[in-house]
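Tutorial handout. Part one gives the primary structure; part two gives the three-dimensional structure as tokens.
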Amino acid sequence: MNSLSIQVANAPCSWGTLEFKGLGGAQVDCTVMLQELADTGYTGTELGDWGYMPVEAAALRRLLARWDLSLRGAFVPVGLSDLDRHDAGIEKSVRTAKLLAAAGDPTDPGFLVLADENAVHPERVRHAGRITPEQGMTRDQWGILIHGAHLVASAVKEETGLKTVFHHHCAGFVETPEEIDYFLSETDPQLIGLVLDTGHYVYGTGGRSVDFQEIFTQYADRIWYVHFKDCEPNVAEAARLQEWDYFEAVGKGLFCELGQGCVDFLGIIDSLREIDYRGWIVVEQDVLPGMGAPRLSAARNRGYLRDLGL
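Part two.
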């Protein structure tokens, strides 16, 4: 595999448009965001929160076509561990997937990026980055979550033909390596893939060493999509020692520019080549008010990846 087999996108969260209320400042207009994303060298984007970009397919296609950008996916948080919230989650997921399918490239379709709804359970928010087994789900809760994930992915496939990838996410119920392992062992490998988020994975280990080569070997057939996010080790360690919650850690720069943290991106790229990965990489850096200019960070992140051969 050469560098041409992988294309590089970015996402609205890198311009401060996050799914969490209270973290962002004034929202950057999507037209400005897409212009800056394209100008700094990216060829694709994710959708962002519902309504951030046009929700009418023709209008969205026209907007993306201004910069010849590919629509790669959409992050959809669903209360998977709550049986009563499954129907609403399916409806939201299918609605989003229909927009992705209608506005995207049928020869290179994007993914529905499913996650357990983050920041809903206070204990998971307070202890993100240092989750213990005792703070995990019961067997019954796991059963409900797995069932919900299958329902969403099945509905998305039947209604739109799109595939679903699951996003392990700090401050949600599937964060630690052990939780990711269990989720993958209990879900249909033909129906649900994994979006490997490098920053969330590192922070979710709670400070343990990470061997990404081992991860790619173990999950080679399940990694359908990749988020490149870095993790600042000094912030992560301070968060663990001072018991910051997820929001405080992110607000203090937990997810820094690529190459400024502890994620081994060169090793990850080597592992992607070894498994002949031919999908997209989506850069994500949560640039919040006071942390710098999103355009400049996006440019530096793209330059860093070019230096690594992407």
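Part three, for discussion. The longest strand covers residues 70-78. The two ends are 12 Å apart (CA to CA).
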